Amino acid sequence: MTEAPHLNAIRQSYDTVAADYATFVKDPGALDPLSRAVLAAFAELVTAAGLGPTADVGCGPGKVTAYLSGLGVDAFGVDLSPRMVELARAAHPDLRFDVGAMSALAADDGELGGVLAFYSTHHLPPESLPGAFAEFLRALAPGGHLLLVTRVGEEEHQRRTYGYGGGDPAPFDSYRLPTDRIAGLLEQAGFAVTGQTLQAPEEGAKRPVAGFLARKPEGCRA
Ligand SMILES: C[S@@+](CC[C@H](N)C(=O)[O-])C[C@H]1O[C@@H](n2cnc3c(N)ncnc32)[C@H](O)[C@@H]1O
């Protein structure tokens, strides 16, 4: 199957900035209390359900994968960028990290107990989100949980051309959708949205951050 062109663009850009990003991004333990509470709630849900491992899709340098693991979650990471995966493996040699796309997970139907997408879905053009959400649903066991955290906006498309921390130039397309649109797409994919958070932009940021907890319904055969 031929790859969608936007995936190659994302891969190349994150390969370029991977080392800067790994330095720039906060350790999850230093995140604000609500972000940590949402991750803790997700960790509690997936460990209590005990349905299978949790995929951190778009894991980057693996800091959040390792944080989840520290909360007792059987977590592994998946990222499009081979350089990010190299850095994640080097920093967390005890954990599994795979190169791959969130829209084609290397997991059997119903194999996963959890899927985390932490600031990783915004690079997908909106028309690609239904396919990614359908893939999360397919890979999750019935009763399994998804946590998606992303900045939201009014159907905005931004193009940045510089790297994290002012590093090497690299283009990044980002799409900021309204919370209702994201929740609606999750429901259309077959998820039951079980919780939503909305955080005002922190100092220096323009857009609020939304968190979506969603569950694959029992009896769902997708
Ligand atoms: C902003 S970084 C977030 C990394 C990590 N989740 C964190 O919070 O530190 C976005 C990551 O998502 C990855 N990514 C973007 N689109 C992806 C896709 N379709 N499949 C897999 N990974 C993707 C990028 O390569 C990048 O490493």
TrEMBL record:
InterPro entries: Methyltransf_25, SAM-dependent_MTases_sf. Gene3D superfamilies: Vaccinia Virus protein VP39. GO terms for biological process: methylation. GO terms for molecular function: methyltransferase activity. It holds the Pfam family Methyltransf_25. Keywords: Methyltransferase, S-adenosyl-L-methionine, Transferase. Residues 56-144 form the Methyltransferase domain. This is Methyltransferase domain-containing protein. It comes from Streptomyces durocortorensis. The lineage of its organism: Bacteria, Bacillati, Actinomycetota, Actinomycetes, Kitasatosporales.
